[in-house]
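new request in #modeling-help
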Amino acid sequence: MDAVNLAQKLALIDDRWRPRIVAAVNDFHVKLVKVKGEFVWHTHEDEDELFLVLSGSFVVEMRDRSVALSEGELFVVPRGVEHRPVAEEEASILVLERAETAHTGGQRTAMTVQEQEWI
Amino acid sequence: MDAVNLAQKLALIDDRWRPRIVAAVNDFHVKLVKVKGEFVWHTHEDEDELFLVLSGSFVVEMRDRSVALSEGELFVVPRGVEHRPVAEEEASILVLERAETAHTGGQRTAMTVQEQEWI
């Protein structure tokens, strides 16, 4: 493996809500994703999920509260907590989670990506 | 847990080579550390270790090659690979590794931090 330049990888992504894997660390994956609009409500029963905002801003909606994130801020959605990512404008996000984490948890939706790709 | 602002957390760190934990994601920890100079050669037998440069630049020396990293670049040192982080000028680094990862692997040195703190 060589160094991974996050800006160069992000420049290769021209769609939204499709995470691309950029690194594996033991059984975890580091992913990049561009987002805009509303994702689907979903839950990962056994996996925590970290979001770090690389550019733009982003809201993690949960049923009892929301957490707004700006560039350089991170938040961990605890396993078992239903959540929906929302971004008014396009944002670039680094996601960290177990490799086995399903994109939309136990839900299967039109936005669900089943086989996540490396970039 | 609330949002974690990386710049605010880094502003609280006024020493070097002492990682502080800022988030837990399942059995992984996300840590911040300021570095300058040469660390010690060490190996994590079972844990990969990710370094992401938040500011400055940083070299991961390995016995057969070195990888230079600038701001916004990451690199994963594979488990079992001896390495030594080196920074000519102060750099701020995000480290991602299993919670159980020993600071200097199997080596115990004057730089070794045994109990890593949250910040």
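bot summary: The interface with chain B takes residues 1-7, 22-26, 28, 30, 47-50, 52, 67-69, 72-76, 78-79, 96-98 of chain A (CB under 8 Å).
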